[in-house]
Amino acid sequence: MTIEIGALVHKDCGPAVIDELDGIAGVITIFIESGRSNDLFEDRQFGKFGEAAIITVIADRDKKQTVFDRLFDACQLQSKTQGIIFMADDMIRSSLDKP
Q1: Following DSSP, what letter does each residue of 37-87 receive, concatenated?
Q2: Beta strand 2-10 with 27-37: parallel, antiparallel or unpaired?
Q3: Interval 73-98: pLDDT, tens
Q4: More confident of the two residues 44 and 30
Q5: For the chain, what are the domain ranges?
Q6: Which of 23, 26, 40, 55 is most solvent-facing, going by the fewest CB within 10 Å?
Q7: DSSP-assigned letter for residue 92
Q8: How far apart are CA 79 and CA 91, in angstroms?
């Protein structure tokens, strides 16, 4: 089974997440998109809005806590106000499931 871990964080977290999670056991794929937010972090490059990284990690269920913790650390959420991360329940089925 697989799970989804998501993050809505400051744009600078994107490269750090790739560096931290690429190649670790349990990570199946990582998606990073960009957007804007007016309430997730203090740094706002566009007046009321700041650039955000929208991160989705698909991971093996049995490695979910390790992947979640590594994502949390990569985004430095323990010391900076720059977003949120969340973990969804098990995915029922996806095209990424192994046969």
Answers
A1: ESSSBS--SBTTBEEEEEEEEEEEGGGHHHHHHHHHHHTTTTT--BEEEEE
A2: unpaired
A3: 999 888 887 888 999 887 766 666 66
A4: 30
A5: 2-58+75-87
A6: 23
A7: S
A8: 31
